[in-house]
Write a structure and sequence with these properties.
single chain, 171 residues, mainly alpha, 5 helices, globular
Length: 171
Amino acid sequence: MAVFTPTTPHGATEVLPLAALYASPVLALFEQLNDALAHYVAAERDLREVDCWDPAFRPWLTDSEEAHADLMQVLAELRDADAYHPDDALLLQMGEAAWAVPSAETGAECRRGVLQLQHGLRLCGLTRHGFGSRIPGLIGQADRHLHALILLDLQGWDAACEPAGARGLWI
């Protein structure tokens, strides 16, 4: 019969202390931003399937307009917020990039927003976050929602109207 002998010292198996999960208005607004983005993407996805206008689709249109208004309100609040924690600066930068995508009216403006998103993601990868930090997850979630929104816009893009040399401009 085998004798149980631990091979790992007790100190190595103790629970690691979690980094303090800070609370700031910017973090709360960024969480609201992710919720608003998810709702807006879902509403736009519902409307994407509508190929002709029918009064039966009015609730979907109303839902999409309300989701867009909520998203823009959260983005405006995030743009006006002040940083209270070192990680807030990165969240505020991603908020600026998030503002650029749904408010873009041209391909160049959308491209600028995508470049800001990519820059923020690179900074997030280079920044050391404490064990248990929610910052990388929040930023990744916002990035996925914004790219889903861009892809929904691209599905309605007419390639015949695309300027010469503009292929691949969006992503």
